[in-house]
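> agent: user asked for a holo structure of the chain below bound to flavin mononucleotide. Plan: (1) validate sequence alphabet, (2) canonicalize SMILES, (3) run complex prediction with ligand conditioning, (4) return tokens. Step 1... ok. Step 2... ok. Step 3 dispatched.
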Amino acid sequence: MGAEEKAFFRLDKEKCIKCGKCIDTCSGMVLQFDSDGFPNMKEFERFGWRGCWRCQHCLAVCPREAISIFHKNPQDSIPKPPKRMGEYMEQLITNRRSCRRFLKKDVDSEIITGMLRTMAAVPTGGNAQGVEYTVIDDKDRVREIWSIAYDKMEAEAKKHHYTHSFSDFYYKKMKQSEKTVRKGDLLFCGAPHLFIAHEKCEGKWAEDSKVNCNIAAAYFELLCNAYGLGTIIMSYPAEVLNELAPDARKLLDIPQNHYMGLMVGFGYPEIEYARGVQKDRSAKTHRWSEKNK
Ligand SMILES: Cc1cc2nc3c(=O)[nH]c(=O)nc-3n(C[C@H](O)[C@H](O)[C@H](O)COP(=O)(O)O)c2cc1C
């Protein structure tokens, strides 16, 4: 099968102005000008490093909607963000808060579907797109996982046995928090839903897999906040599932050889914040141009 057939690269020669932007942005370097000056796709061995990266940059960059690839119509792309997006992002990021109290209410299923659709756009190393998303969007299932993990965590704590990052001190502190900030649930904070990005993690790309998962979790957290949902990044609960409560982890249905760094608990927040916090960023910023003035 020829390259153009493999990727279904289609050029509308009526629209193409031979500007070459598609060639200049082709991550896999498989586009070239042919003898009549139009871009075409070179033969390639296979997708990935030996050919087309499936990044669709050619479709995205074309100013004339002349390129289709993988049967995608350029007119179906979601419009570019408005010019003020930078300000909106600043508002979104600075108003993002960890949420440790949730309403006992399911998030509208269509919102979750829309967010997962958006998550297809998250970057991955080499555009390998090996990250999988597990969403436990049924609060009864979350409860089931929670109760096995919670009981196990408590039983182990009685023997002074904790996850690698915990100790008597931290555990006691977390227990106190059940009276206030994590009402009745130091583990999942009562989050009705769980999101986990995970990826088979082995060989020389193992580090990339971990980074991919953590980037995905960060994007998901912001996306939730953009929809007015509360989120809590759960590294300790992930430790409990990985280190203390294998029976609860099994219920996630995530293979044991998959990296599972952070879980993100999400749901409608019980408490609304009136404003953003004012974290001191400049003191921790190492900016070359300012450092060398
Ligand atoms: C890598 C990472 C791990 C975290 N793990 C937990 C956790 O296990 N439990 C928890 O309640 N919060 C966890 N958090 C949330 C932080 O405690 C929280 O971001 C921090 O207190 C600042 O609060 P803010 O998110 O409202 O700005 C984690 C955050 C990060 C970035």
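> agent: step 4 complete. Summary for user: The radius of gyration is 23 Å. The pocket of flavin mononucleotide is lined by residues 97-98, 100, 232-236 (CB under 6 Å).
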